[in-house]
């Protein structure tokens, strides 16, 4: 993968767009950086420039609308279009409202688990799968930083069943074929006391949403 | 825990210091110490309701305030709640026997398609601590489940919880059904959960959105007071 900073930097700092200006700025969650860069590279979308907000907002969604607003204000003059590569992501409709106010488009759907699976498909299976806990490639790699430590399970493992007692399985939505990552995801399921299922999703509706701007 | 704290013998503390120590122990999530403190106060002749309100709810209020202010986080609140639960388990049967005051009754549950119950459980516990009778329907409740409980339990308040953007609209399904059946005005409807906000609460026709357990308790008390005032006026 070219151009992607480390997961640690994506988690805490995000990714600056650099000095490039262009037609479309993709303003994304840091947890999507590698996947978006892979799509840009694979498709030759040279008119797209990526900037990311810290991925850690995944567990602090109240920060997303304000951070998106600030980033749009910062970069608006340099691009013809800004596309917000977030779904609702736990903002309870506030990000959608903010994007409408700013006049920018965003990815459809409730969260990345849904758009990776494909929003229509995710909605279909939601009824049968609401007791699943999802991880993506990024979240498997960063399981400790996004799940284990913020939930205090490193310090208080006895809390595990208070958090996860109602879940039945961990579904690893794989964006890539990576046996090492699958192994790690299975280990995450074991740590949480959940059954394990791997589903290859690829980039799902993320690819479709970006292709619509190609 | 420091060695100095290890040396504290709860039974040797006077009441006021014991209660302060129980605040600290709740803050630190020390379940066994809380249970011990509750038992000591009972032996000293404290009424169960007084122990509940002054020692346990008093301590959890500090935890709740520090959570609201970003000093404590969810894991610490859960540990504190677990400690309080230990104390409540001792007091609950005694409260029933001693006829503790009842502020009101609440039916609460997480909505259909949602299995998250941490916030709901905290609300249930704090409402009980504030003198409400709570009927907890658990997780994944369809509208029929709420309606049945409302009919059989006759509560003052319906509480609904959701953690997911995808499940929170179901609260509107429940409220719309209450409206259709002409039952909406019979209940105070309070809603809560991480992705919710005040606008959402208003948009779906709830009486109030409650940001956290402490707000839920205060809101419930306010609505109960208003209800009593209306009844007195009527």
From TrEMBL, chain A:
It comes from the Bacteria. Residues 52-209 form the DUF1638 domain. InterPro entries: DUF1638. It holds the Pfam family DUF1638. This is DUF1638 domain-containing protein.
From TrEMBL, chain B:
The keyword Zinc does not apply. It comes from the Bacteria. Its EC number is 2.1.1.13. One of its GO terms (cellular component) is cytosol. One of its GO terms (biological process) is homocysteine metabolic process. GO terms for molecular function: cobalamin binding; metal ion binding; methionine synthase activity. This is Methionine synthase.
